């Protein structure tokens, strides 16, 4: 370390403070910020949490950690000072006690683990005394054992040097050897030999075993270190030390005996967890003076010394040495005689000691089987089904690979595999024979910045398939993953390992959700030890770490390392050593809830079954597949133990599981009630399964249910009872339709030879929106089409289960497909529920089957009220558990499907859970009786992370009403929840929790999402606004949320909306600008900004509404309106640039504000005078003329106001074109985001007609009224082209969409179209028309012909075709509406000559080519399903203009049918066969080729036609007939039929 930390912390520099922070493990980016803020020692002592959070931007956890470590450091320094002041003879109590650590307190260990590692850096030389009691102890290497794989950890401490105890237990001597290790060979060998021989002869002479350690500190010589502290020495060449013992022959007369007693040096590696660059060793020499060698002998020695003056080795005078206490001393002359006389006594003692060693009774045999099961089950009877396991292992022996069934049966989250050959011949290769796994490296776990944990987990498929992490390369892999030696691994991979383990333990899996198993099957190397250390520190303890090792030798090295972290007792308690892998395998299979390697079966088309291999099942990871023999693999013991819990959990309100149905089916428990909705669904399913030539390949059944009414149970019951006849699966949430469709097709075709003969797949999709369902159907139809499955074959049945507040209404909309499940019970259901309740109450207390009891009462309001009132009458209102109930009830009331993770709850309740196996017990014990009854424990289907919610949303709502105190409101409770730091900062389940919290404040109610009504704000904000009778509380709440979510712009957007809603416009502007500043390109936020000015403009106008309008008193309002228009134009630009979203609101709002502004301008006195007021207004708006009355007051606005008519016209044109392309009647579910448009236009076609007319009216009021009063010919000669155009706009002929909408409107459409056409020149071919005029004129002609075919004003087709030739010859310059008319008017007729046909096809072909390009520009990157192309006309049997049949005429045919019948007719294609339609539409002949539809053009040319319904295209190349439709994408094919 660059800066040593000596002296008092208050004298530290900024860099020394940084060094200290680094040593305690603070993240680098925090250290840099603290350094930049110039925090030195003095400032460090004054730091508080607020400074670290606000100035440094620290999270609460690290801030608390730094302050705690600082206080600990100051306390230790204070103790040192006290010791120095004490009299020399006295010692403090703590130092009189042994320095040996207690390993029994796991909490102490975990708290101090990281502190101990860095202790040597923290303690300066002045703190030597202090450090004596603060370093971890460790055991020495087992004495005189060969082939022991052992390791020391730097700065751990051996027991003090000792004298002879019982002659067999070795005495120890430490030598730092720090200086000597750096000497040259000769000097080093002399020094080493001298120390060894001195110690060896001393031990031999007293007949005691001994070990001398080089590289271990002796505090006499080594100030600043603890006595016995392991430091290690660098060893360049081991043979230097081995050869040094050759001095035995030169120094000892009895050299042969000494050789036999002195063992060769052993080199024990020292692991340095800080400095991984340098390799150090402790060199140890064991002395074993066996009696048969040393009997009757006394050994003298001449110790070698290197003499610097002569530069050679000299030998000391011969001496007899002996061990006295912890020292080796020469025997003095006066004691020599006595020493010789007692040789016999010493021999006798040695003899006895050696005999006792062999006669010692064998150790008590441990019950390893019980120990193993207790560790793996956390003290329960079975291994938890939902628990994840992380495996850390090295090379497997071939015989061990035959005994891994227990592993195959467990939920393995990931494997840290140190065997590079594992995929070829190791554990991985064996595992892949039974399961799917994803191959990863440590590098794979580097999470890209900006990615959430959920996104990262999805990217690596972490919860779907086992992640196999090759920690030291892969020999079978061509990528850059080569194995390396220990030191290279430490240099290159240790950081990656640290990040991987930290990510898993601290962000992906919460404590208690997983166990780590170290499976030591071959010699242990350093990387594996580093892995243990990383898990130990990140998991904050050893509780969930288990070690299994058959070989004691392999275990030894791991043990020596692990004991330093958590103590000998804990390591022994958590390790199973000496048990064969075959015994481990057999023992653990007994405690697994499911039998090992059981085959699963699926039904097949020919009524048999086929095997579903586990790997194949895991490849279809987005489906939960229901097999024929589902749950049969569950062990009998598990069933008998758990059946009552499984049953009561369901009736308490838990979601039904497959085991509930299995237990009922096998008569272990009573049957699950079959509700009426189950029978209705089954009937619909049965009808769909009957073969029908018109059957679509994908059939959808919708189950709409009240929240908590049992809809999910009904849906799953249908799947369960059909699993033997159909292939059934549940679609897991949050997978894309592409993946789901791919897996569903794979499930359908599994082991079947022919895609034509497969069983239908019954798929359950829960809580998805209609759009997802339609997209999935579309994907499946495309897939079936690609497989060329015969028409009329039912391939997939989608059962959609969705919550709704009006299930019965949804059911009436389409009784053929929809089923409703409500809280109301039919007479039959009431009878069933009453009988079931009696049976259940015989076995369970009513409180334990709460939801069932409430359901049997149909969730009647008064019953729920009484139930809650009774339950909470004695509750402690100020307890933390009650606070938790409040929070969960608040979320469950306002946010669909919300919950709080158990980990969050434990943090709030401040539970200190030391032993993982008692976690659930501690949690439940901490809850009040009321909480135990109303909380429902959930587990995430994918991650298995536990969470809680209230048993039913209606109960949650009632709790909220009754439990709040007199001073409490929903608003104050929401504020408390926001300010609850523990919950907000808690890292596990954080994404879900913050998502629910955001929804609480931002998500609006949507009827199509199952809510009761559409709301302008989130239901909570709506409630606060209504109940508080003023917006202030709601504003305060959103402001708090804005700050809490780090100034999130979407909260600022909501604040802007809330303020303008309550006419607080200054504040609204501030918040809108705050949001726009952060997201300047978000069209939704820019829309909100525009709406602020729009509402402000309306308010200003309203304020002067009854006053005479002058330029002066309207200037302010005009300025605001113009600002609003600029905002909306900015919104339009942002929306057009956004390739992923559709937002046309800017255009609609621009027109709305423009119309209102025109209304205000025309109401000015100067412009509303009866005489020439209107013409003054027009002159002002469309020419350079400025009236004197407005000249000065409106000076800043003149230029902008004169552009108003063109900008409004452009906006109207954009809207018209957009509506021309796409269907506007799709009721697709809007994807709920905070940035939804402010105000949706519900009937855009009607709106466009009205606003276009209104726009035209303001610019033509005087003339249009005269025109309508005096007839078509009157005044026309006096009108300018602009005035005529504006009258046409007013009459509804201003754009193609408004004109075509007259075909749908009833009433005076014919007269209006005649009036419109009369305004055009009588010979349009000679008029100088622009594109817009030509398009509108031709469209009006076609529309008039559709409504009044014999009308004399309708021009012949040839005249319109001639007019079209005035469109630009460069088709890139043509408007889409012009290109559309070209395809329509130039479609060839049967009586055309070949030459005419060819010319027409060329025109059509060119137009279609450019239409297609325009279409894709318009579509951006949005799925076609979201914007279905709209067909305006069909090709009919007539000639000329009569051949164009408008879509309205086709739709009229089915108008007399009910909505559901109409839908089914069109969806199944039956409508096309109705005689009324076949009579008017022309059947076009063509053919299909490789799935594409073609028409024959002139000279046998292919003309490609887009099929609108892809599944209707035959798979083979066939001759076909179809109906032709005309769209803004080009001609399309309907009702494709193969010619027979």
How are the elements arranged and paired?
Layout: H1 14-23, H2 28-36, H3 41-46, H4 49-54, H5 60-85, H6 93-96, H7 106-117, H8 119-122, H9 128-131, E1 151-153, E2 171-175, H10 185-206, E3 210-214, H11 238-244, H12 247-251, H13 255-261, E4 266-271, E5 280-287, H14 291-294, E6 300-301, E7 304-307, E8 312-315, E9 319-324, E10 327-330, H15 333-341, H16 343-359, H17 368-377, E11 388-393, H18 398-401, H19 405-408, E12 412-417, H20 422-425, H21 427-431, E13 437-441, H22 453-460, E14 466-470, H23 486-508, E15 514-520, H24 526-538, E16 545-549, H25 552-566, H26 568-573, E17 575-577, H27 581-589, E18 600-603, E19 609-612, H28 614-619, E20 623-626, H29 636-652, H30 658-665, H31 676-689, E21 698-705, H32 711-722, E22 727-731, H33 737-749, E23 761-766, H34 770-786, E24 796-803, H35 807-813, E25 818-821, H36 827-843, H37 850-856, H38 861-871, H39 880-894, E26 900-901, H40 902-908, H41 919-926, H42 929-934, E27 935-939, E28 946-950, H43 953-963, H44 970-979, H45 981-985, H46 990-1002, H47 1019-1028, H48 1032-1044, H49 1049-1061, H50 1065-1078, H51 1083-1103, H52 1111-1137, ...
Helix pairs in contact: 1-2, 10-11, 17-27, 23-24, 24-25, 31-32, 33-34, 36-37, 38-43, 39-43, 44-48, 47-48, 48-49, 49-50, 49-51, 50-51, 51-52, 51-53, 52-53, 53-58, 53-59, 58-59, 59-60, 62-63, 64-65, 65-66
Structural class: alpha/beta
Distance between the termini: 88 Å
Number of helices, counting only DSSP H or I runs of 4 residues or more: 69
Within the largest sheet, what's the order of strands?
13-14-12-11-15-16-17
| Contiguous runs where pLDDT drops below 50 for at least 5 residues | 87-133, 1225-1236
- The overall pLDDT, averaged over residues, is 83
Name the beta content range: 5-15%
Radius of gyration: 43 Å
> In this structure, how is the largest beta sheet organized?
7 strands, parallel
Beta strand count: 35
Q: Approximately how much helix is present in the residues?
A: 40-55%
Shape: elongated
The protein's oligomeric status is single chain
């Amino acid at each position: 370390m660059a800066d040593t930390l000596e002296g008092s912390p208050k004298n530290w520099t900024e860099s020394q403070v940084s060094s200290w922070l680094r040593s305690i493990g603070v993240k680098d980016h925090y250290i840099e910020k603290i350094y930049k803020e110039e925090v030195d020692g003095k400032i460090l002592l004054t730091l508080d949490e607020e400074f670290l959070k606000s100035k440094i931007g620290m999270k609460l956890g690290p801030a608390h950690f730094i302050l705690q470590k600082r206080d600990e450091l100051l306390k230790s320094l204070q103790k040192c000072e006290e010791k120095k002041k004490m009299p020399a003879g006295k010692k403090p109590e703590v130092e009189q006690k042994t320095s040996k650590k207690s390993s029994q307190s796991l909490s102490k260990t975990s708290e101090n683990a990281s502190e101990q590692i860095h202790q040597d850096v923290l303690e300066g030389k002045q703190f030597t005394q202090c450090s004596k009691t603060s370093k971890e102890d460790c055991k020495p290497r087992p004495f005189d054992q060969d082939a022991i794989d052992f390791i020391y950890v730097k700065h751990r401490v051996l027991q003090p040097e000792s004298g002879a105890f019982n002659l067999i237990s070795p005495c120890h001597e430490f030598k730092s050897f720090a200086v000597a290790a750096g000497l040259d060979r000769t000097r080093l060998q002399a020094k080493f030999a001298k120390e060894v021989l001195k110690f060896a002869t001393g031990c031999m002479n007293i007949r005691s075993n001994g070990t001398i350690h080089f590289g271990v500190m002796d505090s006499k010589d080594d100030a600043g270190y603890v006595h016995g502290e392991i430091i290690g020495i660098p060893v360049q060449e081991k043979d230097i030390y081995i050869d040094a013992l050759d001095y035995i022959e030169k120094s000892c007369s009895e050299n042969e005996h000494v050789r036999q007693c002195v063992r060769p040096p052993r080199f024990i590696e020292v692991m340095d967890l800080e400095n991984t660059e340098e390799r150090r060793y402790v060199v140890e020499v064991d002395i074993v003076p066996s009696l048969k060698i040393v009997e009757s002998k006394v050994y003298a020695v001449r110790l070698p010394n290197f003499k610097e003056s002569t530069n050679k080795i000299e030998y000391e005078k011969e001496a007899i040495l002996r061990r006295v206490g912890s020292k080796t001393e020469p025997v003095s002359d006066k004691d020599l005689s006595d020493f010789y006389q007692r040789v016999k006594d010493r021999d006798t003692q040695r003899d006895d000691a050696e005999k006792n060693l062999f006669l010692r009774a064998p150790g008590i045999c441990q019950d390893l089987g019980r120990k193993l099961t207790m560790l793996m089950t956390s003290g329960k009877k079975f291994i938890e089904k939902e628990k994840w396991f992380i495996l850390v292992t090295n090379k497997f022996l071939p015989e061990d690979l035959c005994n891994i069934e227990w592993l195959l049966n467990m939920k393995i989250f990931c494997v840290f595999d140190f065997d590079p050959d594992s995929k070829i011949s190791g554990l991985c290769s064996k595992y892949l024979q039974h399961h799917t796994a994803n191959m990863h490296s440590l590098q794979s776990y580097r999470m890209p910045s900006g990615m959430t944990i959920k996104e990262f987990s999805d990217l690596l498929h972490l919860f779907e398939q086992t992640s196999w992490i090759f920690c030291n390369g892969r020999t079978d892999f061509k990528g850059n993953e080569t194995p390396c030696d220990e030191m290279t691994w430490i240099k290159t991979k240790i950081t990656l390992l640290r990040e991987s383990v930290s990510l898993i333990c601290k962000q992906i899996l919460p404590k208690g959700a997983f166990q780590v198993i170290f499976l030591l099957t071959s010699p242990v190397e350093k990387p594996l030890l580093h892995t243990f250390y990383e898990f130990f520190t990140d998991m904050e303890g050893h509780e969930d770490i288990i070690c299994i090792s058959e070989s004691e030798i392999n275990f030894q090295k791991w043990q020596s390392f692990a004991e330093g972290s958590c103590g000998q007792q804990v390591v022994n308690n958590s390790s199973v050593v000496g048990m064969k892998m075959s015994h481990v395998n057999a023992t653990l299979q007994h405690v697994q809830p499911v039998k090992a390697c059981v085959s699963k079966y699926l039904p097949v088309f020919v009524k048999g079954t086929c095997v579903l291999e586990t790997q194949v099942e895991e490849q279809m990871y987005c489906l939960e597949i229901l097999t024929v023999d589902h749950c049969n693999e569950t062990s009998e013991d598990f069933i008998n133990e758990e059946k009552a819990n499984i049953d009561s959990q369901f009736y308490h309100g838990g979601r039904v599981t497959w085991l509930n149905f299995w237990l009922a089916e096998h008569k272990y428990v009573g049957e699950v009630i079959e509700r009426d909705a189950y029978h209705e669904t089954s009937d619909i399913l049965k009808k769909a399964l009957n073969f029908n030539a018109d059957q679509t390949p994908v059939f959808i059944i919708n189950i709409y249910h009240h929240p908590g009414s049992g809809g999910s149970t009904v849906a799953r019951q249908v799947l369960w009872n059909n699993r033997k006849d159909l292939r059934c699966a549940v679609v897991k949430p949050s997978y894309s339709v592409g993946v789901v469709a791919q897996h569903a097709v794979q499930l359908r075709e599994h082991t079947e030879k022919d895609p034509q003969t497969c069983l239908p797949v019954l798929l359950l999709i829960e809580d998805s929106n209609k759009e997802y369902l339609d997209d999935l159907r579309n994907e499946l139809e495309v897939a079936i089409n690609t497989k060329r499955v015969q028409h009329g074959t039912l391939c997939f049945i989608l059962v959609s289960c969705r919550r709704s507040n009006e299930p019965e209404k949804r059911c009436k909309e389409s009784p053929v497909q929809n089923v409703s499940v409500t809280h109301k019970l039919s007479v039959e259901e009431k009878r069933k529920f009453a009988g079931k309740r009696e049976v259940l109450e015989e076995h369970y207390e009513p409180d334990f089957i709460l939801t069932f009891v409430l359901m049997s009462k149909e969730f009647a309001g008064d019953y729920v009220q009484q139930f809650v009132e009774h339950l909470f009458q004695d509750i402690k209102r100020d307890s933390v558990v009650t606070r938790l109930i409040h929070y969960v009830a608040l979320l469950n009331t306002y946010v669909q499907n919300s919950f709080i993770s158990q980990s969050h709850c434990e943090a709030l309740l401040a539970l200190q859970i030391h032993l993982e196996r008692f976690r659930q017990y501690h949690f439940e014990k901490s809850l009040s009786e009321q909480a135990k009854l109303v909380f429902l424990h959930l587990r995430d289907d994918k991650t298995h992370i536990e969470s809680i919610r209230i048993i039913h949303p209606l109960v949650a709502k009632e709790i909220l009403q009754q439990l709040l105190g007199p001073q409490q409101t929903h608003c104050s409770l929401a504020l408390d929840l926001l300010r609850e730091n523990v919950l907000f900062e808690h890292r596990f389940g954080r994404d879900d929790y913050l998502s629910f919290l955001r929804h609480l404040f931002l998500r609006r109610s949507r009827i199509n999402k199952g809510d009761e009504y559409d709301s302008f704000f989130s239901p909570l904000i709506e409630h606060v606004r209504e109940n508080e009778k003023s917006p202030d509380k709601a504003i305060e709440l959103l402001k708090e949320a804005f700050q809490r979510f780090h100034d999130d712009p979407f909260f600022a957007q909501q604040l802007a909306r809330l303020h303008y809603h309550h006419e607080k416009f200054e504040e609204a502007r501030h918040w809108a600008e705050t949001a726009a500043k952060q997201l300047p390109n978000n069209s939704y936020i820019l829309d909100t900004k525009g709406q602020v000015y729009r509402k402000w403009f309306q308010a200003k106008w309203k304020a002067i509404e009854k006053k005479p309008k002058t330029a002066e008193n309207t200037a302010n309002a005009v300025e605001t309106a113009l600002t609003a228009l600029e905002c909306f134009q900015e919104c339009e630009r942002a929306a057009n640039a956004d390739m992923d979203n559709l937002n046309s609101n800017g255009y609609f709002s621009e027109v709305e504000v423009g119309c209102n502004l025109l209304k205000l301008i025309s109401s000015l006195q100067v412009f509303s005078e009866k005489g020439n007021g209107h013409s003054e207004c027009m002159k002002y708006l469309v020419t350079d003329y400025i009236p004197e009355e407005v000249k000065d007051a409106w000076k800043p606005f003149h230029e902008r106001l004169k552009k108003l008519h063109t900008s409004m016209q452009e906006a109207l044109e954009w809207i018209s074109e957009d509506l021309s392309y796409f269907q506007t009647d799709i009721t697709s579910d809007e994807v709920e985001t905070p940035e939804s448009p402010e105000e949706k236009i519900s009937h855009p076609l009607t709106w466009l007609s009205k606003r276009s007319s209104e726009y035209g009216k303001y610019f033509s009021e005087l003339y249009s009224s005269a025109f309508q009063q005096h007839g078509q010919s009157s005044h026309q000669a006096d009108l300018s082209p602009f005035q005529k155009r504006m009258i046409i706009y007013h009459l509804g002929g201003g754009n193609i969409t408004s004109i075509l909408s007259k075909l749908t409107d009833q009433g005076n459409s014919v007269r209006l179209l005649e009036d419109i056409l009369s305004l055009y020149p009588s010979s349009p071919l000679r008029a100088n028309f622009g594109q817009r005029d030509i398009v509108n004129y031709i469209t009006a002609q076609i529309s008039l012909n559709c409504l009044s075919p014999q009308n004399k004003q309708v021009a012949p087709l040839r005249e319109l075709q001639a007019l079209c030739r005035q469109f630009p010859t460069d088709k890139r310059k043509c408007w889409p509406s012009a290109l559309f008319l070209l395809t329509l008017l130039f479609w060839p007729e049967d009586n055309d000559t070949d030459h005419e046909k060819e010319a027409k096809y060329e025109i059509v072909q060119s137009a279609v080519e450019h239409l297609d390009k325009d279409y894709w520009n318009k579509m951006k990157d949005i799925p076609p399903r979201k914007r279905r192309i709209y067909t305006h006309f069909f090709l009919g049997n007539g000639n000329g203009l009569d051949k164009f049949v408008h879509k309205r005429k086709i739709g009229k045919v089915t108008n007399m049918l009910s909505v559901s019948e109409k839908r089914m007719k069109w969806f199944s294609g039956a409508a096309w066969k109705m005689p009324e339609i076949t009579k008017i539409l022309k059947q076009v002949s063509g053919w299909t080729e490789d799935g594409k539809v073609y028409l024959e053009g002139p000279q046998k040319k292919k003309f490609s036609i887009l099929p609108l319904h892809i599944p209707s295209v035959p798979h083979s190349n066939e001759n076909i007939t179809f109906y032709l439709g005309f769209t803004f994408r080009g001609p399309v094919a309907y009702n494709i039929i193969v010619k027979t």
